[in-house]
């Protein structure tokens, strides 16, 4: 079992930055592929970014809408995954969720993830 707790959301102006954190319980955090998803009101939950684990860091994957602006990273010693969000736009407004899966490789659909955090609100004002 893994429990995930997100933090770092808030209100920011267009062009601003935020860093989300997701801290996991459990001693096997490093074995999990970690992902970030987001859900805007009235819309489906969409993939944002994912990171696997390797001895040298981790492979990453991003949705086209956030490439070049968002960066996912992880610190296995702290059981934490981060999402650095720069150049934020109003369309980035959503509840952001952290997720974990033991499936190998970079997973981009919500159905491939077994564990979810409670979500953190990100609001970008125009």
What is this structure's SSE topology?
Elements: E1 4-7, E2 10-13, E3 18-24, E4 33-39, E5 46-51, E6 60-62, E7 70-75, E8 80-85, E9 94-101, E10 115-116, E11 120-125
Parallel strand pairs: 2-11
Antiparallel strand pairs: 1-3, 3-8, 4-5, 4-9, 5-6, 7-8, 9-10, 9-11
Question: Helical amount among residues, as a percent range?
Answer: under 10%
The DSSP helix count reads 0
The share of residues in extended strands comes to over 45%
| Distance N to C terminus | 40 Å
Radius of gyration: 13 Å
Structure classification: mainly beta
Shape: globular
Could you spell the SSE succession in H and E letters? EEEEEEEEEEE
List segments where confidence is low: pLDDT < 50 over at least 5 consecutive residues. Answer: none
Largest sheet: 7 strands, mixed
Total count of strands = 11
Mean pLDDT: 93
Can you walk through the features of this model?
With 126 residues, the protein is mainly beta. 0% of the residues lie in helices and 47% in strands. A hairpin with a 4-residue loop joins strand 7 and strand 8 (80-85). The chain is globular, with a radius of gyration of 13 Å.
The gist of it:
The protein is mostly beta strands and 126 residues long. The chain is 0% helix and 47% strand. It is globular, with a radius of gyration of 13 Å.
Quick tags:
126 residues, mainly beta
């Amino acid at each position: 079992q893994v429990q995930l707790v997100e933090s770092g959301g808030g209100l920011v102006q267009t062009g601003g930055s935020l860093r989300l954190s997701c801290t996991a319980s459990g001693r096997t955090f490093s074995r999990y592929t970690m992902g970030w998803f987001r859900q805007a009101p009235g819309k489906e939950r969409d993939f944002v970014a994912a990171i696997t684990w390797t001895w040298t860091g981790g492979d990453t994957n991003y949705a086209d809408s956030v490439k070049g602006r968002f960066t996912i990273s992880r610190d296995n010693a702290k059981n934490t995954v981060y999402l650095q969000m720069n150049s934020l736009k109003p369309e980035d407004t959503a509840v952001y969720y952290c997720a974990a899966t033991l499936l190998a490789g970079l997973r981009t659909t919500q159905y491939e993830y077994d564990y979810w955090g409670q979500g953190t609100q990100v609001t970008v004002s125009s």
